[in-house]
């Protein structure tokens, strides 16, 4: 089970590193071409989401890898799951359903990692 958790953590970390990097460092005009919602929310919120995703991606890997405060890995997964819940609610309110499947899958994987890393006994 530990190997499966590591694989999922690595995949989630890659997804959130890419998404967080784009939201944090790309010009908002260029970002709005690919993500129409960017022009509908305040720019500091877009940047804050990007930073949160970057920190969450780091939190998925670094504490568990270094074995320093490994419970932070579960907490990072919970934080990323909360971001995904917010994304689902936001996009559903705007009736943007085509990408909802991917968001739900990412949410499920983040919850799986949070549960798997929070429980001291692997299931």
Summed up, what is this model?
By secondary structure, the chain is mainly alpha-helical. The protein contains five helices and no strands.
**How far apart lie the N and C ends?**
7 Å
The overall strand count is: 0
Which stretches are low in confidence, meaning pLDDT under 50 for 5 or more residues running? none
Q: Can you summarize the main beta sheet? A: none
Helix content range? over 70%
Number of helical regions:
5
The backbone outline, from C-alpha atoms, is: globular
% residues in beta strands: under 5%
In round numbers, the mean pLDDT is: 92
Q: What are the secondary-structure elements, in order, as H or E?
A: HHHHH
Can you give a write-up of this model?
By secondary structure, the protein is mainly α. The protein has one domain (2-118). The protein contains 5 helices and no strands. The longest helix has 24 residues, at 2-25. The radius of gyration is 15 Å and the shape is globular. The N and C termini lie close together (7 Å).
What are the key terms here?
mainly alpha
How would you summarize the topology of this molecule?
Layout: H1 2-25, H2 28-34, H3 43-66, H4 71-93, H5 100-118
Helix pairs in contact: 1-3, 1-5, 3-4, 4-5
